[in-house]
Specification:
The chain contains 9 helices and 11 strands. With 298 residues, it is an alpha+beta fold. The chain is globular, with a radius of gyration of 23 Å. Strands 1, 2, 5, 6, 7, 8 and 11 form a 7-stranded antiparallel beta sheet that branches. Strands 3-4 form a two-stranded antiparallel sheet. The chain folds into 2 domains: 47 residues; 240 residues, no CATH class.
């Protein structure tokens, strides 16, 4: 893509963002008119995720599938975590977890799976069992032992997993070299929220994190695009989760790559040494980045 084409794309993205940034805010006479678009704006509104181009298998000179972990404790990844309290905030601002969960509940996201190989689909009931736990308190068990047939609500403990407990996201994508355009590209395939197991959240020594569900991302792009992310540089031009993910505006570390050993994790062959695991993840990332340079060396 030449500079002129790139400039046109950037202007189009900024234009669509400006339409969605508190539409009619300066012209509203009453608060109810904020966000309402005129008939002319609705007719000209063609906002949507930029469609992926068709890639023929014969145009892929080289590819590598990698799994990465986005740690929400890192500052650059905070736009995926906040806001966690949605009581006093507009409905078009949610965390990435709430965005995905809302899309699943509404039926806009239908391709939800148990693992990153996208073979076993999950139903909404399956997902709910991973997000909440209902148990009887110790006092309730005492009443049941005394012969009680039913328990009041105060003897029932319910734990719900919310956006506040999300520790990070696992993503699966493929790096490939497009020989037709002569450049290295990335395509995001799946994303999964990571959190403590809801069945052990009340235990103080709980450290293990689990993937709640895997979403086939190409089928969730519309939902990810419609939810806007706060832009701390200029609130008049909000971004979307689809923009952030496809532009790779996040910090992630590779924890697995496809390999001859059954796609084993880095932690499986480098055990007990977090520093060496980080160095191995950086080595894998640098190997992929150098692949584009190697393509031009004869």
């Amino acid at each position: 893509m030449n500079w002129r084409g790139l400039l046109v794309v950037c202007v189009a993205v900024l234009a669509t963002n400006s339409i969605n940034a508190q539409a009619n805010l300066l012209n509203a006479r009453i608060p109810e008119e904020i966000g309402m678009k005129t008939a002319e704006q609705l007719a000209a509104d063609n906002d949507g995720p930029l469609p992926y181009g068709y890639i023929d298998d014969r145009d892929i000179l080289w590819s590598k599938v990698v799994w990465e972990y986005i740690d929400l404790n890192e500052k650059i990844n905070l736009p995926f975590y906040y806001p966690i309290d949605t009581t006093n905030i507009s409905s078009n601002r949610r965390s990435l977890f709430d965005t995905l969960l809302r899309g699943i509940k509404s039926g806009e996201i239908v391709d939800v799976y148990d693992d990153s190989y996208f073979e076993n689909k999950l139903t909404m009931k399956d997902i709910e069992t991973r997000l909440s736990r209902i148990d009887t308190s110790d006092a309730g068990y005492t009443l049941m032992n005394e012969g009680a047939t039913s328990l009041p609500d105060e003897y029932i403990d319910r734990i719900d997993l919310t956006a506040e407990q999300i520790e990070g996201f696992k993503i699966k994508g493929v790096w490939y070299f497009d020989k037709r355009q002569g450049e290295l590209k990335y395509r995001l395939l799946g994303i999964a929220p990571v959190a403590p197991d809801v069945n052990f959240m009340d235990q103080t020594d709980q450290e293990d994190l689990v993937s709640l569900f895997w979403v086939w991302y190409p089928g969730a792009r519309e939902v990810a695009h419609n939810m806007k992310v706060f832009n701390d540089k200029n609130s008049a031009f909000p971004l979307s989760f689809d923009h952030l993910l496809n532009a790779r505006r996040f910090r992630a570390s590779i924890y697995r790559e496809e390999n001859i050993y059954g796609n084993r994790d880095v932690a499986e062959y480098i055990k007990g040494n977090a520093l060496f695991q980080v160095l191995e993840a950086d080595r894998l990332k640098e190997e992929i980045r150098n692949k584009e340079l190697d393509m031009w060396n004869y």
